[in-house]
Amino acid sequence: MTAPFPSHRQEEWRYADLAALKPVWEQFAEPVSLMVAAGEEIEQIWLQAADDVQMRRIHIALGEGAKVRIFALNTAAIYGRIELNGSLQECAGFELFGPTLGTGLSTNEIVTNVKHLGRFCRSRQVIRSVLNGRAAGSCLG
């Protein structure tokens, strides 16, 4: 079952280009889950495809002492969205580096929600945007 289509009334979809998203919603509606075991360390680089509409929805759960570092490039020509929900157990560490490059009339968003569930967790998010024309970029975290 596909998740219901979002609306601008939802805070996390307030700036979304819903018209661009509608044709591809079924493909991206359900987030991918990533479980990182206790003590495990992961580093990932997320590069965008050449598609005009690009979306990545991820739920990440970090076990005790796990470390994750993600470099996520957001460069869609029409609409790009990186949506990340995370949960950190004790002593877990999470880092997100998200450059956004927008041109023309593109809309590019990064939306994060990271919950520190255990003691001594650490998260760091560095988002930078370079936009030209009438491009819009937003970060909600």
> What proportion strand?
over 45%
Q: Report the count of strand segments.
A: 9
Multimeric status of the protein: single chain
Identify the overall geometry.
Answer: globular
Terminal Cα span: 27 Å
SSE-based structural type = mainly beta
Please trace the helix and strand order, writing H or E for each element.
Answer: HHEEEEEEEEE
**Helix content estimate:** under 10%
Describe the biggest sheet?
Answer: 5 strands, parallel
Number of helices in the DSSP assignment: 2
Strand order of the largest sheet: 1-3-5-7-9
Summarize model confidence as the mean pLDDT: 91
Low-confidence stretches: none
Provide an overview of this structure.
The chain has 141 residues and is mainly β. Helices cover 6% and strands 51% of the residues. The chain has helices at 18-21, 25-28, and strands at 32-36, 41-46, 53-62, 67-72, 79-88, 93-102, 107-116, 122-131, 136-140. A five-stranded parallel sheet has the order 1-3-5-7-9, with no helix packed on it. A four-stranded parallel sheet has the order 2-4-6-8, with no helix packed on it.
Question: How does the SSE layout of this entry go?
Answer:
Blueprint: H1 18-21, H2 25-28, E1 32-36, E2 41-46, E3 53-62, E4 67-72, E5 79-88, E6 93-102, E7 107-116, E8 122-131, E9 136-140
Parallel strand pairs: 1-3, 2-4, 3-5, 4-6, 5-7, 6-8, 7-9
Can you give me a brief rundown of this structure?
This protein is mainly β and 141 residues long. It contains two helices and nine strands, in the order H-H-E-E-E-E-E-E-E-E-E.
